[in-house]
Amino acid sequence: MERAMPEKSEEVVIKVREHGPYKVTGPVRLIDAAGAPLPLPQDGRALVLCRCGRSRTKPYCDSSHARPGGTVCVHAGLPPARDGEPLFPSPVFGGPFHFAGEPEGRDEPFYGRYANPTWQGWEAALGELEGGEAVAFASGMAAIAAVLLTALRAGDVLVAPSDGYYTVRTLAERHLEPHGVEVRFVPTADDAIRAALPGASLLWLETPSNPGLDIVDIAALSTAAHEAGALVAVDNTLATPLRQRPLELGADLSVASATKQLCGHSDVLLGYVATAEPARLADLRSWRTETGAIPGPFETWLAHRSLATLAVRVDRQEATAAEVAAMLAARSDVVASRWPGLGCVIALDLGTAERAQAFLSASKLVAEATSFGGVHSSAERRARWGGDDVSPGLVRVSVGLEDPRDLLEDIARALDRAA
Q1: How many CB atoms are located within 10 Å of the residue 114 CB?
Q2: Contact assessment for residue 402 and residue 365, using Cβ atoms and an 8 Å cutoff
Q3: Would you say the pTM of this structure is higher than 0.85?
Q4: Strand partners, 381
Q5: What 3-state class would DSSP assign to 103?
Q6: N or C: which end of the chain has fewer CB within 10 A?
């Protein structure tokens, strides 16, 4: 890495991360977040530098890793402007591509299972949002499977939520435990997770959790997990990188189902994994190629196009969710409700399956459907699937882009009819 060393008046803060992309030598002083000196690592661990104290995949601070907003969402991943070209590139469809000669030292697409320019644009945009580099997958579960099945081997230990997305538990029980991976399911709570860390190989966090909407401290748990020798992966689906950037908080991997709010139009299935660690990035890309867990170019084109409105959608849905949550908290006929202060998802408990179903049937604006994050409000009784240990009356509500007054009136009316 070529880089002029800073003047004495400048401060360069360096955060130590294993498997990071940059190695630094020379007269660089290391300090922690509190300003205490740290010794230079002698074991080859890489360093990610930033003058402002945040982890970053660039060897300098250009402020591009500040929490992304609308400008990044609109422009991320786009090619340079060229006369005669559209502002947003069209999707590229292709199985084989023209590719003459030997492959060494070349990065042009040659076969659609290995690379596609439309994926690569979306992946570049996701990398800007997450603060790393991203690998796109055909679904959120394809992304989750890629992380778990590349990171864990016989004898390893996975610590994962007992109250998170149930298909993660299903995958662990059916495809990891039979092959010798020890699986420890624990509640989404800091103390319970810490107690399960000794001997762990991978800590899987989901915060806010789905459907309970519990929150844990990613930074503190990442530190604890690394001290225990474990990697950290965070399911960032519900928060999105506009509200939470796990890599900056110390996680090794940020995983998401882009099917949800990131795409936001309920018309695609996609997922991705982001990391700042080149070795893991290479493993994930190899896994995708070798298993064929590739996304389609049209789906990724839709996802990239939808990204331009992400900040607007998140702001609007979150603001309406706050109003809905306040209304639910004030109603005596709601047994319990929860909103974590971010995101578009609210959990409310109506006590019984019958009341929950009556509410869902009475609503005119809230579609009864699984998933969340779309422009249309939706809800479902989560216990109907049998995978979550939740109240039979728990309803997960996803707040859409309807006018807040209309949605509040519709939900209140449906609750009145279900009383």
Answers
A1: 12
A2: yes
A3: no
A4: 395
A5: coil
A6: N
Strand pairing class (394-398; 378-381): antiparallel
Using an 8 Å Cβ cutoff, are 5 and 26 in contact? Answer: yes
Q: Give per-residue pLDDT as tens, 101-116.
A: 998 888 888 888 999 9
Six token digits for residue 74: 């609109």
Give the pairing of strands 182-186 and 157-161. Answer: parallel
Residues 6+ apart with CB under 8 A from 93: 297, 298
**Could you tell me which residues are beta bridge partners of residue 133?**
275
Q: Where are the alpha helices (DSSP H) in 292-403?
A: 297-307, 310-329, 353-362
State pLDDT tens for residues 68-127.
889 999 999 999 999 999 999 999 999 988 999 998 888 888 888 999 999 999 999 999
pLDDT 10s digits, 359-401: 999 999 999 999 999 999 999 999 888 877 889 999 999 999 9
Q: Token pair 């590229």 is at which residue?
A: 92
**Rounded Cα distance, 26 and 28, in Å:** 6
State the SS3 of the chain. Answer: CCCCCCCCCCCCEEEEECCCCCCCCCCCCEECCCCCEECCCCCCCEEEEECCCCCCCCCCCCCCCCCCCHHHHHHCCCCCCCCCCCCCCCCCCCCECCCCCCCCCCCCCCECCCCCHHHHHHHHHHHHHHCCEEEEECCHHHHHHHHHHHHCCCCCEEEEECCCCHHHHHHHHHHHHHHCCEEEEECCCHHHHHHCCCCCCEEEEECCCCCCCCCCCHHHHHHHHHHCCCEEEEECCCCCCCCCCCCCCCCCEEEEECCCCCCCCCCCCCEEEEECCHHHHHHHHHHHHHHCCCCCHHHHHHHHHHHCCHHHHHHHHHHHHHHHHHHHHCCCCCCEEECCCCCCEEEEECCCHHHHHHHHHHCCCCEECCCCCCCCCEEEEHHHHCCCCCCCCEEEEECCCCCHHHHHHHHHHHHHHHC
Q: What single DSSP character describes residue 88?
A: S
Q: Please, are residues 53 and 34 in contact by the beta-carbon 8 Å criterion?
A: no
Residue 383 has φ and ψ, to the nearest 5°, of -70, -10
pLDDT of residue 66: 57
